[in-house]
Each structure stands twice: as structure tokens, then as C-alpha cells.
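Researcher: Re-running this chain for the archive, since the previous output was lost when a drive failed. Same request as before.
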Amino acid sequence: MNNIKKLRPWKQTILTAVLLSMLLYSCGQQRDRTKLAVFDGGTVTQKEYIDHFLSSTIYKPGLMPSEKNLLDIVFQKAMEKIAILEARSRKMDTDSALVSGAKKIADTNLAQKYMKAEVISKVVTDSLIKKFYDSFTPQYQMRYILRIVSNRTPATTLKAQQDTINIIYKLLRKGQKFEDLAKEYSQDMVSKSKGGDIGYVIKESLGDAKMREVMEALPEESYSKPFLGVSGFYILYKGKKRDVSVPEFEKVRAKIWLTLYRTRRYDIEQQAKKLFKALAPSYHFKLNKSAVKQIIQKAKIGKTQKGDNFLLEPGLLTKKELSLVLASCDGGKVTGWNVFADRKKAPTDKREFDKRFDLLTQQMVFAQDARRKGYNNTPEFKNTEKDILDAFLRQGLYQKEVKDIVNVKIDSLREKEKDILSPHDLRLKLVEQRTKLENRYRTDFEKRMKEKYHFKYIEKNFAGAIKAAAKRKKEENEKRKQAKK
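Model: Regenerated C-alpha cells:
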């Protein structure tokens, strides 16, 4: 301090401020590392508790921190860490099936990063974002009538759709209203009921290059001749224009990127297909056509009304079909499980299957190229990869200690009660018993883990943590209020 006194007053002020900020930062760091629970091999800190509380209550602004939710969150975080320690102690991190599953998810994450850098950025460029911004105003009210076709549409259907759009055009020429004809004939389910109205737009917000070309050439309050676009035959109507105020570029840049990403999906898909085709030979990509045909034939349940498309029932597939390798490359493969395992994304018709299968094969090859180019060497991805494996370890341990045991008991109960209860009552009873058993065995397992790893709360630090969490929650609530204004 004697040295500080020798400095000029303004220098003393600056140095004092710097020292004070360093002290406050150090105190903040210390509080973040304050332990709320300890166990053999790890801790749960105040920062972990607050971060979890804020993320889990983001849509509950009125819910404030309390000792109860602190106990719940801290215990949950501790059990997650203990489960990983226990799984590793049992050498589960060397289980080839588990490690392979984790790698598959990591590769999907890697492929998505690669897509953004190597494909999407080639379509949604900085110059396109600027072009969109420069044409922010004026905007035109646009409508269209669509008759859907694709590159897989049979020739007879294609001709019928073309004839229909030409008839619609003749009716327009005879004086019928565009809105009425759109409601009756358009096959775009979003705009059809609104008379083909897609709102006030600018040219660059349209995803179809042909539509942009036609819109630019159209005079105000006129309609186009029929033309073939990406999704089918169109007639476009350009309505009144309006001028809007142009916001600051940086305030809307992210929104413009998102709009272009959504509307340029066709261009992005084409760019991805082009890149996949170029890369596939380098990674010895192989398509197993016979396996694809076998799995399709087994799941096929009938024709739809859309040309070569037909319905699929994933429930018809056995483990044998699901285990088939449909495509492979150096370092990866796509099986029936990958296509149908996720119930929410499982294809229910042939076109959905093709789309899902194409996506998975692209991701497989892109992930290998991403690793070759070093995308997997960033600290961010290393952390992601570790988090994914940890999640698989927790799930694997829970499967072994809880779900497998419960499944055996449920199978036994089903066999015992199947001739006594009706199918409906049996199903209800099994659901109820499964929930009870899972809660019971999970509680027993967690109790054993608490004792084995000597879990203990640090109660003296609770008050400070709750106070800090409440402060952060109020700050977050205020930020959201300001953002809405």
C-alpha cells in the first residue's frame, strides 16, 4: 500500500479499481466453487446448482429457489456423477456396444457441425444475408396456387397436374378471383385456406429460385403464367407493396440467417447431395441394395395415393431385419435400427424412409470427413464427446440395476395374470406396476450408491447458495421482461 501512495492520484484510482475488480472476481470464483455436497471422487458446487435451477425453471418465472429444490437438484447432480464413477469402476466404458452407441451419437453431432461449416455456409453466405438486408423494403403481398409434383412423380400424374394448372390459368384469364381458385385448387395446405396468401415478403425470402425470378419480373397487382418450380406447378400473384422501417443490421442478422436457412432448404439439400457424392468413394461407401429391399418388403403394408409411395409399419420388423447393414463406409455403418429405432422419426412410408436413410448415410460420411479435417479436435467437441459417453454410462448402469430387473418381474406378472385379466385391464396393471417397481428399485440403487460413495450435504453453504440463486433468477426475469418490450 505504501507504493500505491507514491503514485499520482489518477494512477492510484486506476490501480485501486483494478485490484478491487480482481478481488471481486476472485470472490465470485470462490462462491461458484462453494461445495453443496461431497462424495468419494467428486462434489456438487454452487454454480452447478444455480445453472441447473435457472435452466429448469426458465419458463417458470414465479418459481424461486428454496431449500427443497436445492436438495433435489444437488442430489440429482451428485447421483449423475456417482453413476458415472460406478459405471467406470465396473469397466462399462470398455463395453463395445455402449462405446459404439456413444460414438454414433457423437458422429451425428460432428456431422451437424460439419454440415453447418461445409454445406450450409456455402448456401447461406454473408453476401446473401447482406443482399436480404439491402432488400428489406419494400415488401409485397404474395399469393400462389400450387399443384404438387416431384422428380418421382409418374409421367401420367405429372401431365394431369400440368393440365390442371393450365385450366386454373384459363379460369383466371376469364375473370375468376385468384383467392377463390386458390382455395379450391391449390395443394399447398398452409396457404390454401387463406386464398394462397403467404403474407408480405421480399424476393429473397422465397426459397425457390424460379419463384424469385418470376416475382421480380411481375408487375404489381398481377399474376404470372404457370411455371414449374421445386415443389410443382405454380401461378404466382404479386399484390400491393408496403414500405417498412429497416432495423439495424446486427439486430436482425441472426433472424435473417434463420429465415434463409429455412427457405433455402432445397438448395442446402442439393449442396449436401453433391458433396456426399464427391466424398463417398474416398471413404469406400457401399450401399447394400438387397438389405434395403428386404427391410422395405418386410415393413410394406400397402399403397398410398401418391405414385410410387407406399405405407410402412415398423412394428413388422424383427431383430433380424433391424440388424441388417443397409450401408457402410470406412469407420461407420447404417443399420435398420438406425432408421427405425427413434419412434418419433421412424418412417411410416417409403418416401420418409428414403429421406431418413439419405440423411443417415450423409451423416455417416460427413462425420468421417469431419474427423479427417480435425473437427473433432476442438475443446468444445471433446467435452461434447465426453458428455455423450457419460450419458451412455449412466443409462447403461440404470438399465442393469433397475430396468432389467423390472422387466423380468413385469414379464412374470404378465404371464401370471394374462388368463385372469382382460387385455385392457392387464395393460393398465402392468403400466402401474412398472412405474412402482422402477421407483422402488431406483430408490434402492441410489441408497446403495449414497452409502458406497459416502455422499454428504454441506448444509452450512445452503443459505448463501439460495440467496445467490434468487438474485440470478430475478436478473433473468428482468432480462426477459426487457426483451419482450
